[in-house]
Amino acid sequence: MKTGGQLIVECLEAQGVDRVFCVPGESYLAVLDALHDSDIETVVAKQEGGAAMMAEADGKLTGRPGICMVTRGPGATNAASGIHVAKQDSVPMIMFVGQIGRRMKGREAFQEVDYRQTFGDLAKWVEEIDHADRIPEVISHAYHVAMSGRPGPVVIALPEDMLRDVADVEPAPYIEVADPAPTEEAIAGVVDLLKEAKNPFLLLGGTRWTEEDVATVHKFAEDWGLPVGCSFRRQQLFDHTHPNYAGDVGLGINPALKSRLENSDLVILLGARFSENPSQGFSSFDIPVPKQNIVQIHSGAEELGRIYRANVSINATPGTFLNAMMKEATPEGRAVDPTVHEEYLAWTSNPPKIPGDVQMGEVMKHLIKVLPEDAIMANGAGNYAIWLHRFWPFRSFGSQLAPTSGSMGYGLPAAVAGGLRCPDKEVFCFAGDGCFQMTMQEFGTAMQYRSKVIVLLIDNGIYGTIRMHQEREYPSRISGTDILNPDFAALAKAYGAHAETVVKTEEFPAALERARNSKFAALIHIKIDPEAISPTATISGLRGK
Fold first, then answer.
1. Rounded to the nearest 5 degrees, what angle is found at the Cα of 338, between the Cα atoms of 219 and 204?
2. Of 3.40.309.10, 1.10.3720.10, 3.10.129.10, 3.40.50.1220, which CATH number belongs to 184-343?
């Protein structure tokens, strides 16, 4: 006979879980007690939002659900930001929430929340386990739901008295979900459209990719002479130095790339939903019937035809589609137009100068020069992220942790999870001063668990993205966008980390070298002029317009 708490942990062990992210709470003490005797590493975050974002990032890197545990009420609602990231980023994740005792339901007991109602729009499935003997069944189903179709988060509530009940049941076996695959007729339709197309374009996005799939998509693009773009914050899906690479289709898109995409006669959306940001506010394609021929391949059948009516819709994972296409003969002489990559290089090779003593363009050039190709780059949201997304050449799968949901504060907890999952790789967190302060307490988590993260904190003393929009819409009427910042280097040193402040461009290379040579996590506080509101805009320039 095992307690419910023991069964939860045994079921996770049966699924190969080696790490959970949590903030402890009295509502699930029985699970914490069972973790004491397991081989699962328990990473204690400083706030539930950070724990949830760590679990989401772990799911991004592994393709299996990242595991988060939080307590009832405020713990669960704090974690909602990470659940939202997992939803919009289509990442498998399971969050276990401690719950009030079963006999107390409906009385608005201490910290009582109806989780089905609260998370109904954010999670793929929300369940509450009232009987300990159903734990293996529910967790098995949770894994299937989180990983199948379009992946996403699952929330499971655990009444604290249920966790003390005992049952004589065994964990379910290791879960592998089905991979939807294309029919022969659908593949034939794609081949016909490709043969007829004069200006095709391949757009990559979504999840359920593997390293092997990424290698295959390079060969597929070469065989058919396809220009390739990556959807918003999915740059890791194609080598940016490849001659077929056209650039990222997201915010601040290269005008030449935007024109190429919109003037294509065939667009293949492989895994991509092509939602608001990559579609430039749903303006790139006519809705519901684009003027371009469209092929959409998605692992979630519900996403096919959701916005655009495609000529060919295929319910498949990227891998099953690519494997089927690689069996098809390709016409002779299909080569990509060399201007595809030339336009990308012209857009990214010469970062603009900005006001102030720190030139972020030179910082990016130095990073490109000295860092390994497989370095993991994490970021949250803000104009500072443009420096990374536009000017860093992503080369390999598993090198990007970025929220398509645009969540501030994501970069640091994601980097912590990345450092723990991939200790053999260098992990960097790009953060703005506003973004960092959303979750900066997780720097303590990095130090506690020896996640060797290097934070590049780009500080301009304002909420830069909001200020940019404010100056466009209400010039000179500053409201709510100034920030009084601490000495971030002193803060990192207080945790026992290596940290220093950079106020001139020429100080950065040596500071980076010292950070890379530090034993534990490190932080470089980079102070830039607030006038440099983005890589290509200034505050005075926006006001002048």
1. 45
2. 3.40.50.1220
Q: Within 13 Å, how many C-alpha atoms sit on residue 165's CB side? A: 17
CB 272 within 8 A of CB 285: no
Q: Is the pLDDT at 287 greater than 80, yes or no?
A: yes
Is 371 exposed, middle or buried (CB count within 10 Å of its CB: 0-12, 13-18, 19+)?
middle
Name residues whose C-beta falls within 8 Å of residue 262's C-beta, 6 or more positions apart in sequence: 284, 285, 292
Q: Return the SS3 of 520.
A: coil
Burial 418-448 (b: 16+ CB within 10 A, else e): bbbbbeebbbbbbbbbbbbbbbbbbbbbbbb
Helical segments of 374-500, H only: 385-391, 411-421, 433-439, 442-448, 464-473, 488-494
Alpha carbons 260 and 201: distance in angstroms, whole number: 8
- Per DSSP, the chain holds a count of helices (H) and strands (E) of 21, 20
Q: Where are the domains of the chain?
A: 2-167, 184-343, 350-544
Q: What is the arithmetic mean of pLDDT over 269-275?
A: 91
Residue 494 neighbours by CB under 8 Å, 6+ apart: none
Contact in structure between 212 and 319 (CB atoms under 8 Å):
yes
Span 337-351, pLDDT tens digits: 999 999 999 999 999
Backbone angles phi, psi at 508, to 5 degrees: -70, -45
Q: Which CATH number does 350-544 carry?
A: 3.40.50.970
Give the global pTM.
Answer: 0.95
Looking at 3.90.226.10, 3.30.450.20, 3.30.70.580, 3.40.50.970, the CATH number of the domain 2-167 comes to 3.40.50.970
Rounded distance between C-alpha atoms, residue 431 and residue 457, angstroms: 5
Share of the chain above pLDDT 70, in %: 100
Distance CA 444, CA 374 (A): 25
Q: Is the pLDDT of residue 170 over 80?
A: yes
Rounded Cα distance, 257 and 341, in Å: 10
47-59 confidence digits (pLDDT tens): 999 999 999 999 9
Q: Quote the CA–CA distance of 422 and 29 in Å, as a whole number.
A: 30
CA–CA distance, 78 with 53 (Å, rounded to integer): 11
d(CA 345, CA 500): 33
Amino acid identity of 485?
Answer: N
